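Course assignment 3, question 2. Fill in each field.
Student: A.L.
Task: Predict the tertiary structure for the chain below.
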Amino acid sequence: MSLINRSTRLLLAVCAISLVAAPSRAFGQATTGSISGVVSDSSGTPVAGARVSVDGLSLATSSGQTGRYTLTNVPAGTQTVRARLLGYRLQQGQTTVIAGQTATLNLRLNIAPAELERVVVSTGYGEQVKANVTGASEVVGGEEITKRPVANITKGLQGFMPGVVVQDFGGRPGGDGARVRIRGAGTLGNNDALILVDGVVGEINNLDPLDIESVSVLKDAASAAIYGARAANGVVIIKTRRGRNTGGLKFSYDGYVATQKAQDMPQRVDIGTELKTVNDVYISSGQPAKYSQGYIDSTVTGVDPYKYPNTNWMGLIYKTAPMSDQTVRLAGGNDLATLSLSGNYFDQEGILNTENYYKRATLRGNTNFNVSKRLTAQANLMLMHERVARPRGEGDAQFRALHDTPPTSLATYPDGAYSWSRSAFNPLAQLREQGYFKERWVTTSLNTLASYALENGFKFGGQFEADNKDNRQLEFQPTYAFFDPVVSPTTSRMSNVRTNSIDRRNTNLNFDAQLTGEYERTFGAHLVHALVGYEQRQQQYDGVFGQRQGAYNNTLQLPGNGDASFQFAGAPQNIGSATETRLVRQFGRLNYSWNNRYLAEVDLSHDGSSRFGPNKKYGNFPSASLAWRVSDEPMLRNHLGPINDMKLRGSWGRLGNDRIDDYLFQQTFNINSGNYVFNNALATGATPGRLANNDIGWESTEQTNVGLDLEMFSNRLVFTGDVYNKQTSGILIAVPVSSLIGYSAPTQNAGAVQNTGWEAALNWRHNIGQFNYSIGFNIADNKNKVTNLPGGDQINVSESPSIRRVGYPINSIFGIEAVGIFQTPEEVAAWAKQNAKTGPGDLKYKDQNGDGKIDALDRVIIGDRFPHYTFGSNMSAGWRSFDASVLLQGVGKQDVFLDGALIEGPTWENFFSTYLLDSWTPENKDAKWPRFVFRSDHNQNAPGSNSWYVRNGKYVSLKNLNFGYTLPQRLVGRAGLSSARMYLAGTNVYTWSPLKGIVPPEANPGSTRATYYYQTRNWSLGTSLGF
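Answer field:
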């Protein structure tokens, strides 16, 4: 059966149900009529989910997605109709019902000042009031995100939602790589959430936060199942701001300027302590002291900074950098059309002391048209231009050099020449002289929608989106040769003899087309809403790569100026690549509500993807959810004390994951990888690579969720709690095969992972006269483990070794268990053999297998990299024209593997952190750390192999402070303004952590600060003006 036929049958089925269910006027009673109308808020926006009832009668219904309601079989005469929705004042009105006719009564709801505001969740192809949602979902408004002046929305989401973890990889401008993870890691591959912007797949990190109206997160299978094959890792739905019916257009300006400074740099010990400790290391290893007392005294006093240097490398490499964001907006409209047109320019200079920036210019226009009473349309256009510049090779090597270089190494001589006086490195020269990397993105997006509503409850819609992203990357390494004029005037200490030019260009072109049909009808207390749809998405990628070396001079920086005859890595590189991916979907959803008391939802998505093998291209992804509003039960309504609303939820569903590489199911060959004999001569050829597998299919995630929603004390206190069990099967892994086959291991659907956890959120809001305040707290925990891994353990041996093993979390920390520190030679002799030079002060390792020696066979799992007890707390207060807000975010437990230069300290004369001061000596036997040993004996206490260096990376971070003042209307009116607010905000203000300065908050699990950008602490001064 074709895909179109399937969707057509679903649509016809819904039509048939509606026709059978439609009441016939022929059977209407002559003494009754109907009441119909629209429920809206104070701005005229339709309100869905409001309970509408007739006073004194058992007649009730709910307003639909467009705010419309209909009450049938209403006795003739004057009737009082009431509309109620949590967060709004009760609204009522009167109308006269004439037998056999329909009376019209529109009701407008006003927000109750002492209650929570109405919360609307984007649920995929529609919206629902959160009070009526049956799945697990969260929403945060754009005004909350913009309280934190940040470069992207991802960072603005930190701390707001339980179960939503933002991994922040540092302060690199335009490329911090922040990721959103929802309810743990469900696969061994890509665990990023699906991002949708205005209904289609988009990107989150380059959106202007001021363009955002709301961000909804769908966490369980029931809420996300409508997206089927792409929703296994959760869904983030972003709505951009739209114009409203204000009777005209209004102009506004929002902007801020900020300073950025590296956050929580590690503290280095004073130079005297460092040099003395280095001497102690040398002497304990049988070496003569490296520094004389006279040298130490001269360095401490700073009598001659060039002869006795004490270089602050951190101060030379990092700087305080500016950042600014400016947005102008024209928004408003009338009954026929609304418009939101915004222009934004964001300029972020990097904190590295060289050319280092991210600049973004965005133009966004969103329009709504009421073409007729039944036909509406939208058109959304976005143009974006981004530019990035950073030093070439910036990354692990440069950051390691920064922490590996001792302060006794001079940076520059008085004439500005670089020095390599006591080190193989000069981080300042590496930063500034090795060339540049520059990148440009040009993005164009057009998104159009249309919807046509019929009188009988049917509505049909269509959406088409096209976006194009052009990217160009230029990389250039000049020729250079640097000499130390004092130490090595004739020997180059850092050089490059040939220029190296790289030009990468790629284009991503995406098309998305959707058709939907909806039906909504109320039958007394029954509300039915059905949706069916069809989507087709196509993604095309084209890329070229060119590289040349050996240009005539450093001013010729493009590859075309290089020497094409020069051979490097086999040949001059000219590479082209192209991929195409297609996705086709049919989906449906059925919602049922009885009197807003019993709620049910069923979803089904049937998806096909070109990424999977011919035998497994299609998959079905169903879900079902139920909710019971206990507080509306007549027998309980008056016995719940302070509880105003209580709802129990339960859901089950199956989701898919298509986040895999293209063409994994196909056979591969390695070109120019083998020699063959033809006519007694060797000829290069191809060898078989990966075996084909036509059965590669979906990674499937089944999730069960149970939740409770409570509103208490006149809706001032709101509680939400969930527990879940998420199991992913069919994870793609390369199952080992015999080397005799001669092929690489084929990828198969064989692995399995389980995530179980709980989430809770509590919010209190209250008004006392002109003073209002709110306090919110959320917390969550997730436990991850591998449940199936054919082929056995997968060990990754590196500086931070990890393992995948059944029964344990993905990428658990793997090493030798340290059980203490040796205190005496006799204790060493009585223990299992470790190292020929093991002595007092060294770590004591556990002999797991009892063979009398410590080796690789004694390695065990020594840590869990995943964060536990993630929490956030947001507090706000307002009095008259003043407002303030605070956001805290943290982690209760996370095993972090301490490695690299920040931990090795005097052993290699690396960065000597104050964190390492409490080390073992004969006089300090009750120490936190083992003794420092000479570099040749480093393996005795190497942090890269044992549990002593696994520590709890828990932290609490003051993520945001915001103080604002709204100018009185009498003042702003004189200046021709309608509103004006000024504010001072701080981001990443302070962090409390036992590993402060060593391990950054929200880090890639298990890493230290030694290998990437520091996060930045920002202070911003901004204003919002309305005209």
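Instructor remarks: The two ends are 58 Å apart (CA to CA). The chain has a mean pLDDT of 84.
Grade: pending
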